[in-house]
């Protein structure tokens, strides 16, 4: 289900696709890819930004709002598994 924040993100993607990619992925390789696609042609930048938005909406449906972490290449993984926080390479 599309939320108000997703609609705002779509509007940002229409105006400036790299800004939407930055909001979704932060400073990552996907941001660089989106900047290059936007420079090479405005439409490819839009397609990439809309694809990132689509993947984010699907992750929200699967893991719940805030229950996922972006790991790159349009993929997400859950922050929590079976009620316990997931350890991502940090030692206790």
Automatic annotation (TrEMBL):
Its main location: membrane. Keywords: Membrane, Signal, Transmembrane, Transmembrane helix. Pfam families: Pmp3. Residues 1-21 form the signal peptide. It is found in: Membrane. Belongs to the UPF0057 (PMP3) family. This is Uncharacterized protein. It comes from Sphaerobolus stellatus (strain SS14).
């Amino acid at each position: 289900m599309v939320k108000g924040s997703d609609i705002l993100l779509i509007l940002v993607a229409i105006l400036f696709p790299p800004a939407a990619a930055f909001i979704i992925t932060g400073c990552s390789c996907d941001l660089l890819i989106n900047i290059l696609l936007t420079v090479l042609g405005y439409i490819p930048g839009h397609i990439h930004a809309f694809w990132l938005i689509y993947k984010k909406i699907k992750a929200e449906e699967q893991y719940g709002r805030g229950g996922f972490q972006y790991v790159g290449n349009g993929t997400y993984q859950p922050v929590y598994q079976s009620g316990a926080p997931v350890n991502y390479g940090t030692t206790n």
